[in-house]
Amino acid sequence: MIVLDGGLATELEARGHDLSDELWSARLLADAPDAIVAAHEAFFRAGARIATTASYQASFAGFAARGLDRAETAALLRKSVALAREAATRAGGSRWVAASVGPYGATLADGSEYRGRYGLSVAELTAFHRPRAEILASAEPDLLALETVPDVDEAVAMLAAIDGLGVRAWLSYTVAGERTRAGQPLDEAFAVARGNDQVIAVGVNCCDPADAAPAAALAREVSGKPAIAYPNGGQEWDAAGRRWRGHSRFDPDTLGDVNYAGGCCQVRPADIAALAATYSL
């Protein structure tokens, strides 16, 4: 079993950084890159083997609103991979970097990634994701993380967007019980990756911890791929206040038999250390 990292933004906030704006952790790519390196390194030293980059919410439109042109935005996307690679070098050993490709809804900064169904076609979503995926792939990460995907249409679009880029990827949905956030059955969702040689794992992330193990087991069965699960702490996301409410219920013992395991929002290095210790037994 390969241990993933936890919530990068959560760790950055815990270290005193205000991430309440629409760019979330991506803002620090320009404003505080050393902080991103330090947060990645903390997860590596806790036992993570893979760091997921600070590119989840990065977009051309988002950075354009801050006065950055496409070339400057592309440079920051590539920088997200370089910063994670720097942390991996500092931590030593065999470490991987997964370039985060978040859903379209994440760039809207209104909680849409937990609903899906944006009113865009698969072709339109593919056109949105392709330029960002191309730039991230050009930075030579070990993997692309197609993550927090709320519905099947966007998964199909994201897989089309990375086709031919020459970088392996995992596909992980955000789910609610036995359905995607958009309401589709999970067997339908996981099936879209079956037979796709570019995809190395299929599963879930940023979901309730109780939903992770059964969904990941189904992902393995339906897709024929290794299973991945990295739930959040189980709190409720307040889109208007841009904050998580409640207390963490993350428990390494509940993740089940998965090939890749980690955490998402509200999961700290101490949680990853506990997960690494649990799965090393």
Describe the structure.
The termini are close together. The chain has an 8-stranded parallel β-sheet with strand order 1-12-9-8-5-4-3-2. Helix 3 packs parallel to helix 5, helix 3 (33-46) runs parallel beside helix 11 and helix 7 (122-138) packs across helix 8. With 281 residues, the protein is α/β, with parallel strands linked by helices. It has helices at residues 8-14, 28-31, 33-46, 60-64, 70-91, 104-108, 122-138, 152-162, 186-191, 209-223, 269-279, and strands at 2-3, 50-52, 96-101, 143-149, 169-173, 175-176, 179-180, 199-205, 227-230, 236-238, 243-245, 260-261. The chain is globular. It is built from 11 helices and 12 strands. The mean pLDDT is 92. Pfam families: S-methyl_trans. It comes from Amycolatopsis acididurans. GO terms for molecular function: methyltransferase activity. Its EC number is 2.1.1.10. InterPro entries: BHMT-like, HCY_dom, HCY_dom_sf, Hcy_S-methyltransferase.
Topology:
Layout (H helix, E strand, L loop, with lengths): L1 E2 L4 H7 L13 H4 L1 H14 L3 E3 L7 H5 L5 H22 L4 E6 L2 H5 L13 H17 L4 E7 L2 H11 L6 E5 L1 E2 L2 E2 L5 H6 L7 E7 L3 H15 L3 E4 L5 E3 L4 E3 L14 E2 L7 H11 L2
Helix pairs in contact: 3-5, 3-11, 5-7, 7-8
